[in-house]
Design a protein that fits this description.
By secondary structure, the chain is of the alpha/beta class. It folds into 2 domains: 214 residues, Rossmann fold (3-Layer(aba) Sandwich), CATH 3.40.50.300; 60 residues, Alpha-Beta Plaits (2-Layer Sandwich). The chain is built from 11 helices and 13 strands. α3 crosses α4 and α8 crosses α11. It is globular, with a radius of gyration of 24 Å. It binds adenosine-5'-triphosphate. The site of adenosine-5'-triphosphate has 11 residues, from β2 and α1. InterPro entries: AAA+_ATPase, ABC_transporter-like_ATP-bd, ABC_transporter-like_CS, P-loop_NTPase. One of its GO terms (molecular function) is ATP binding. This is ABC transporter ATP-binding protein.
Length: 298
């Protein structure tokens, strides 16, 4: 399938700073991709280049086959900043009608766009009375004008409560299901774990990891933690039977390499009645993220 976004060998140097170094990636139609990285990793720089706001130093970027910033690319790409700001005295509907007019579209489309993002009931209220989550949804409604094929979202859910986040991601899911490609940056690791198809980790301007969470888990090969609940005070005996295990109260804690996991599970099963329960905890996205980000000494 043709990619919506293609980046190859992208490098961006500012005076004395290499913000992006030889980054290559693609985003396919309908794909939801999360861009993770510490402050200064290069996320905003990459977004600015995709939007055509600043030029690349080296490398190639194509948005729906067109050069970033060209009229063809601008028609296909939409951007939502972290803190979308609107005129507080305008109603949601007035604001959207204004944007539609600027884009040369029929302002009557404002109501349908506001319905789409769940703001139908608040369309005639002034934006100054909206919550942050509602303002972000106005921003998304504005981004949807013209049916963009690529949505670039800079920390779109930062500062939103859990319900607003869930609603926001549900909207993104629906847009992706219709074929829009989504590239979003976030610091909320656990939420992107559940709500995106692929994760990219930037560290010091380099793309240090890319793949589904399962791919990243496998290649990071981080240890697996296990918590064994002992029956009838057998915790010390269980710990003695499992290398590196520590007993604490009625629980036994241990970690092992991925490659040893099945062997350890076999040993635990062999303890029979002494074991009341077992919890296996795979490395979290935070663990994986720190693992890759640390590689560049950040
Ligand atoms: N206009 C500029 N001039 C000089 N250096 C810049 C400029 N813009 C960004 N940088 C540098 O490029 C690097 C990447 O910055 P960038 O803003 O892309 O990071 P980021 O991952 O978006 O961080 P954050 O999460 O804080 O937004 C940083 O070292 C930053 O200081």
């Amino acid at each position: 399938m043709t990619s919506t976004l293609t980046i190859s060998g992208l490098t961006k140097r500012f005076e004395g700073v290499t913000a992006l170094a030889d980054v290559s990636l693609t985003v396919a139609p309908g794909e939801r991709v999360a861009l993770l990285g510490h402050n200064g990793a290069g996320k905003s720089t990459m977004m600015k280049i995709i939007l055509g706001l600043i030029p690349a130093t080296e490398g190639r970027v194509e948005v729906c086959g067109a050069a970033p910033g060209s009229p063809e690319a601008r028609r296909q790409v939409a951007y939502l900043p972290e803190n979308a700001a609107f005129h507080p005295a305008l109603t949601g509907e007035e604001q959207l009608r204004h944007y539609l007019r600027l884009r040369g579209e029929d302002p009557a489309g404002a109501s349908a766009l506001l319905e789409r993002v769940g703001l139908g009931g608040a369309a005639r209220r002034r934006i100054g009375t909206y919550s942050k989550g509602m303002r972000q949804r106005v921003g998304l409604a504005q981004a949807l004008i013209g049916h963009p094929r690529l949505l670039v979202l800079d920390e779109p859910t930062s500062g939103l409560d859990p319900v607003s986040r869930r609603d926001f991601y549900a909207l993104l899911d629906a847009l992706a299901a219709e074929g829009a490609a989504i590239l979003l940056s976030s610091h909320a690791l656990t939420e992107v774990e559940a709500r995106t198809d692929r994760i990219l980790i930037l560290s010091g301007g380099r793309l240090v990891a890319e793949g589904s969470l399962t791919d990243l888990r496998r290649s990071a090969a981080l240890p697996v933690a296990m918590h064994v609940t002992a029956r009838n005070g057998h915790a010390v005996q269980i710990a003695a039977a499992l290398p590196g295990a520590i007993a604490a109260g009625g629980l036994v804690h241990l970690t092992c390499a991925q490659s040893e996991k099945l062997d350890v599970l076999g040993r635990i099963a062999g303890l029979g009645d002494k074991v009341a329960d077992l919890e296996v905890l795979p490395p979290s996205l935070e663990d994986i993220y720190s693992h890759y980000s640390r590689r560049d000494g950040q």
